[in-house]
Design a protein that fits this description.
With 242 residues, this protein is an alpha/beta fold. The chain folds into 2 domains: 5-169, P-loop containing nucleotide triphosphate hydrolases (Rossmann fold, 3-Layer(aba) Sandwich), CATH 3.40.50.300; 178-237. Helix content is 39%, strand content 21%. The protein contains 7 helices and 9 strands; from the N terminus they run βαββαβαβββαββααα. The protein has helices spanning 17-25, 68-83, 101-107, 152-162, 178-199, 204-222, 227-237; strands spanning 5-11, 43-49, 52-58, 86-92, 117-122, 132-136, 139-143, 165-168, 171-174. The longest helix is centred in the last third of the chain and has 22 residues, at 178-199. The two termini are 26 Å apart.
């Protein structure tokens, strides 16, 4: 909650990346023109969606170019993509007739196996498509028109759900911090080890130890710390004065 989530906007030139940034921030944060390559550097802005802090990062259009300045902008874009918590890949729905997420991503030099990617098929006002969210091969797609503000609510809801937020009775439950994910991965490993020992009739003491470690890592998420754990966490994450 304190650090926020970094969301990078990526895509070819003139597909609506800067328009998306302006729609999400509610202001003219980025210059929008019909001239390809208007954005050559990284543009950062902060927004909140129902209390969720998001760092929105607009990037240069991904394409082959001999322009030295544009090449630097594209290199910076790829660095931001690698570090992003989530990628919004904007595609011109009127131009891309195949609607194949993997093909669209590979054309941009983006690995389809990246942790979190959403394809945004923009300009559906030119195609007759309706606003919708669906998934192909595990990659989510949102159909929208930034020009006509169609599908923006679907995108906001998708962002909330895809990064671990659920809204219930006015309460927000966040479960996607890296620390939580690491703890859950350890729990998974320890439960698997316990299962294998049990199936192989291993020593009950070792099975119990695996389960104990799994419980301890779950405590990292639920807040079941020992006093020493709590003090170490406080002094490592916060600046405490006398």
């Amino acid at each position: 909650m304190r650090d926020g989530i970094s969301v990078v906007i990526a895509g070819k030139p003139n597909v609506g990346k800067s328009s998306l940034l302006n729609c999400l921030t509610g202001m003219d944060t980025a210059i929008v023109t019909n001239i390809p390559g208007t954005t050559r550097d990284v543009i950062r802005s902060q927004i909140q969606i129902d209390g969720l802090p998001i760092h929105i990062i607009d990037t240069a259009g991904l394409q082959e170019t001999t322009d030295v300045v544009e090449q630097e902008g594209i290199e910076r874009a790829h660095r931001e993509i690698e570090m992003a918590d989530h990628i919004l890949c904007v595609v011109d729905a009127a131009f891309d007739k195949n609607r194949n997420p993997e093909v669209a991503l590979r054309e941009l030099g983006i690995d389809p196996q990246h942790k979190n990617i959403t394809i945004l098929y923009n300009k559906i006002d030119l195609t007759g498509d309706l606003p919708k969210v669906h998934s192909i091969d595990g990659i989510a797609s949102v159909y929208l028109s930034l020009k006509n503000s169609l599908g923006l609510d679907l995108l906001r809801e998708h962002l909330k759900s895809s990064i671990g937020f659920t809204i219930q009775a006015g309460e927000m439950v966040f479960s996607a911090r890296r620390r939580h994910i690491t703890a859950l991965e350890k729990v998974n490993e320890q439960l698997y080890a316990a299962k294998q020992r049990f199936l192989n009739r291993g020593p009950i003491e070792l099975i119990a130890e695996d389960l104990h470690l799994a419980q301890k890592n779950l405590g990292e998420i639920t807040g079941d710390f020992t006093s020493e754990d709590l003090l170490n966490r406080i002094f490592s994450e916060f600046c405490i004065g006398k």
